[in-house]
Design brief:
Structural class: mainly alpha
Largest sheet: none
Helix content: over 70%
Shape: globular
Distance between the termini: 27 Å
Order of helices and strands: HHHHHHHHHHHHH
Strand content: under 5%
Number of strands: 0
């Protein structure tokens, strides 16, 4: 047996089982904990096994369950065993997400790492676009009172433009590879994810355009740099991220929203998730050439750098405590929470792209 389970069998649990069984055989009258029935031990082993991802359980679950049942029968109240299994399960889940570990299927693991990176960038952008749209609304109405907010808005706007360029550069090779495979008659497993992606993207685009007509930045007061961000782009960003709102914590205020807007606030995250899920499945199922994988990994490194720049601008705005006229530039608790979520997404994305480079090296 090789891989993670092999280490486990020869390591902590394997030693524990063999040691305790040996003691039991040589000393049947020794005092010890009350025995556990095989059925109860099997139930507890099944619960512990859930720490591991489905793929790992399918491959190693039967043997690992037998090992756990034996150990539970000997040590029914061992917290060390529970902690050890939980740690191993978390590591296995991180490996299945392409964040650590390395196996024989290097291209497959590289694709998994890139999928994890794409998910991290999406989470980052959902929160980042919500914060950026807040600044662009205030920007339409008045010049910020502090240089920190001006710098933050410029930096975040430039980063958003860079995200758009990187997204386009990353999408073209994947789309070309998927279309080429379909053209050669190898469409199995690609049509469903393609449809899911197109449906999610279409819903996001149509909904963002429709609800963008109610953008609060419309009719702002003209000033020298008001046109930094095109109104249509800012309105779409605002409408697409309406779900990121502190109104969820105030049901009474939320009840005053039009039903169509409430429905969109609940539907838009699902549409984005559908688009990302479809794209992730396409990346996993399309056998991208090694050169394309390395190109995507380099784009991932650039995306992480852009995320860091955007987050720095966001932190500059929050730390500047600029209220602006009518509190247009006020950063509240939800903005701080969003920045924390973005930082976590950046760290996870950075780990994913480092793992991809390590596999492809």
């Amino acid at each position: 047996m090789s891989g993670h389970l092999g280490n486990r069998v020869s390591g902590h649990l394997g030693n524990r089982v063999s040691g305790h069984l040996g003691n039991r055989v040589s000393g049947p009258d020794a005092a010890g904990p009350d025995p556990v029935s095989t059925e109860a031990a099997a139930r507890r082993a099944a619960r512990l096994l859930r720490w591991y991802p489905k793929g790992w359980r399918s491959r190693y679950g039967e043997e690992f369950t037998e090992l756990l049942i034996s150990d539970i029968s000997e040590r029914p109240g061992s917290w060390a065993r529970t902690a050890d299994v939980a740690r191993g399960g978390i590591v296995a889940r991180l490996a299945s997400a392409g964040l650590c570990g390395c196996g024989p299927d290097a291209p497959g693991q590289a694709r998994t790492s890139l999928v994890s990176l794409a998910c991290c960038v999406t989470v980052f952008l959902v929160f980042g676009a919500a914060l950026w749209s807040q600044l662009t609304i205030g920007w339409q109405w008045s010049e910020p009172d502090t240089g920190a907010t001006i710098a933050a808005t410029v930096v975040m706007s430039a980063a958003m433009l860079a995200f758009g360029v990187l997204a386009l550069a990353a999408a073209v090779p994947v789309a070309w590879s998927a279309v080429s495979r379909m053209g050669r008659g190898h469409s199995s497993g690609l049509i469903g994810p393609s449809a899911l992606f197109l449906a999610g993207a279409a819903i996001t685009f149509v909904g963002g355009r429709h609800f963008g007509n109610g953008w609060p930045g419309t009719g702002g007061h003209p000033w020298a740099a008001q046109g930094l961000v095109p109104g249509g782009v800012a309105a779409f960003s605002w409408a697409s991220t309406l779900a990121v709102s502190s109104y969820w914590a105030h049901p009474a205020a939320l009840a005053g929203f039009p039903w169509a807007e409430l429905a969109w606030m609940m539907l838009s995250p699902l549409a984005v998730a559908s688009a990302v899920g479809g794209a992730a499945a396409l990346i996993r199922r399309t056998e991208l050439p090694p050169g394309v994988l390395r190109f995507e990994a380099r784009l991932g490194t650039a995306a992480c750098a852009t995320m860091a720049v955007f987050l720095a601008g966001c932190c500059l705005w929050i730390a500047g405590r600029d209220q602006g006229p009518g509190h247009l530039f006020h950063a509240g608790a939800i903005d701080v929470a969003a920045a924390v979520a973005m930082a976590i997404a950046l760290l996870a994305g950075r780990q994913a792209v480092r793992q991809a480079h390590r596999i492809l090296a």
